[in-house]
Amino acid sequence: MVNITEKIKEIEEEMKRTQKNKATEYHLGLLKGKLARLRAQLLEPAPGAGAGGGTGFDVSKSGDARIALVGFPSVGKSTFLSKITKTKSEVAAYAFTTLTAIPGVLEYAGAEIQVLDLPGIIEGAAEGKGRGRQVISAAKTSDLIVMILDATKRAEQRALLEGELEAVGIRLNREAPNIYLKIKKAGGMKITFQAPPKRLDEKMLYNILRDYKILNCEVLVRDENATVDDFIDVIMKDHRKYIKCLYVYNKIDSISLEHLDALAREPHTCVMSCELSLGLPDVVARCWHELQLMRIYTKRKGIEPDFSEALIVRKDSSIEDVCDQIHRTLKETFKYALVWGASARHVPQRVGLGHVVADEDVVSIVAK
Ligand SMILES: Nc1nc2c(ncn2[C@@H]2O[C@H](COP(=O)(O)OP(=O)(O)OP(=O)(O)O)[C@@H](O)[C@H]2O)c(=O)[nH]1
Ligand SMILES: [Mg+2]
Fold first, then answer.
1. 82 touches ligand 1 (CB under 6 Å)
2. Sequential DSSP letters for 212-244
3. In terms of Cα–Cα distance, which of 164, 98, 160, 163 is closest to 132?
4. What fold is seen in the domain 294-367?
5. Which is the closest atom of ligand 1 to the Cα of 69?
6. Residue 98 alpha carbon, nearest atom of ligand 1
7. Is 343 exposed, middle or buried (0-12, 13-18, 19+ CB in 10 A)?
8. What are the start-end ranges of the H helices in 63-178?
9. E strands of the chain, at which residues?
10. ω into residue 197 within 30 of 0, thus cis?
C-alpha cells in the first residue's frame, strides 16, 4: 500500500501539473478535497491505529489563556520566553536548541498567560519532518500563535511557515467561512446560494460532496466570494482551527532602518530585538490586545470594589461566565447583578445572566 505521505505528494504534483482553467477547475476542486482528507488522516489517524499522530507535548493548560511561540530554528523563541517570563529556556546559536515544549507564565494586567516555547519547525513539518507535527498540535491548542520571524532572513520564511500551518488545518487571522452545511439521513442534496457565487457553482459542490460520500445534506452559501477551499474547510470543520496570529520580527538590531520600517507596517506585525531589549513591552501589549481578554472587578454590597484583583474572562462573556469564574454553583442562587462600566446603559444597571460585560466593568452579584 502506498503510504499517506506519498499519496499527498502525488496529488500535490498533479495539482502543480494541471493548468488552471474552466475545463480543469472541477478536477482541481476534487483534488483539493482529497488532499484535505489525506492531510487530516496524517495528523489524526483513526482510533486504534497506534502512535505517530498529532499528539502534542505533555503540557497541561493553565492560566487564563495560552500563547504558542512558533517559528523556524534559531529565530529567538527561547530568548523571547526568557525575557517576558521568569522561565529560562535554553538559548544557543545552533538550530534545534529547544527539543520540547517549555511553558512560562506571563503576568499582565492581572492575568496569567501561559506562553509555550516550542522547538523550531522546518519546511515539511506538516508531513512530519522534525518534531513538526507535535509542535503544530501544540500550536492548535493555543488562543494566540505568536510567529517569531528572523528579520535578517528572507521574506519567504513567513509564507513557508504559514503554508505549514495551513496544511494541518490552522487558519490564521480568519473567520470560519459563511457557509451552512447540514448532513442529513435522507432527502438528497439541496444546494442554495444566497447571492450568485463568483467562484463556485452547484456542480463543483455536488462533485466534492459526492467524493466525501455526503449524499444527503443541505448547503446554504451565504458568502458570494466563497471558494472551493472555503467549502472544503466547512466539510472538514472538525479538523479546522481558526486562530489569531501575531507576526513578530526579532533581531531588528541587525537590519537597516528602511527594512525595519517596512516590516513594522505589515498587518498583524510587531518588531523587536530580544538582544537589545527593544520593543518587548509593545509585543506583550499587542499579545494582550489580540487575546481579547477582559478584566472584571467584583464588588460586595456597601464596599468599594477591589481593583487589585480582576477576574479574567474572554471577549463577549456574559454575567453567567463571570459567575462561573467565581464559583461553579453561584448561578444557582443568582438573583440579579448590578453593573457599573462601559456595558451598563446607566449606572448601576440591574441585569440578568445573559448580559454581556465589557472590559473593566465592576459587577456585584446579588444572590437569592
Ligand atoms: N542579533 C540578535 N540575535 C538574537 C536576538 N535574539 C536572539 N538572538 C540569538 O539567536 C540565537 C538563537 O536564539 P534562541 O532563542 O535559542 O532561538 P530559538 O528560536 O529558541 O531556536 P530553537 O530552539 O533552536 O528553535 C541565539 O544565539 C541568540 O543569542 C536578537 O534580538 N538579535
Ligand atoms: Mg529554542
1. no
2. TT--SEEEEE--TT--HHHHHHHHTGGG-EEEE
3. 164
4. Ubiquitin-like (UB roll) (3.10.20)
5. 19
6. 23
7. buried
8. 77-84, 132-140, 156-167
9. 65-70, 102-108, 111-117, 144-150, 170-172, 179-183, 189-193, 217-221, 241-250, 269-271, 293-298, 311-314, 334-340, 349-351, 362-367
10. no
Cell numbers representing residue 74 in the block: 534559531
Coil, strand or helix: which one is 362? strand
If you search the block for the grid coordinates 517549555, which residue do you land on? 102
Answer whether CATH 3.40.50.150 is correct for domain 65-174+240-291. Answer: no
pTM across the whole model:
0.87
Q: How far apart are CA 174 and CA 75, in angstroms?
A: 25
Cβ(75) – ligand 1 distance below 6 Å = yes
Name the nearest CA neighbour of 325 among 114, 111, 144: 111
Dist. CA 277 → ligand 2 center (Å): 17
- Using CA positions, which residue lies closest to atom 7 of ligand 1? 76
Provide the residue count of the chain: 368
Alpha-carbon gap, residue 156 to 45, rounded angstroms: 31
Question: Which residue minimizes the CA distance to atom 8 of ligand 1?
Answer: 76
Q: How far apart (Å, rounded) are the C-alpha atoms in residues 165 and 176?
A: 16
Distance (Å, whole) CA 74 – CA 250: 10
Q: Could you state, in order of their start, the residue ranges of all structural domains in the chain?
A: 2-44+177-239, 65-174+240-291, 294-367
Nearest one of 239, 318, 292 to 43, comparing CA atoms: 239
Residue 253, ligand 1, Cβ within 6 A: yes
Encode the chain (368 residues) as per-residue pLDDT tens digits.
468 888 999 999 999 998 888 888 899 999 999 999 998 887 765 454 444 444 567 788 889 999 999 999 999 999 999 999 999 888 888 877 888 899 999 999 889 999 999 988 877 777 766 677 788 888 999 999 999 999 999 989 999 999 989 988 999 999 999 999 999 999 999 999 999 999 999 999 999 999 999 999 999 999 999 999 999 999 999 999 999 999 999 999 999 999 999 999 999 999 999 999 999 999 999 999 999 999 999 998 888 888 888 999 999 999 999 999 999 899 899 999 999 999 999 989 999 999 999 999 999 999 98
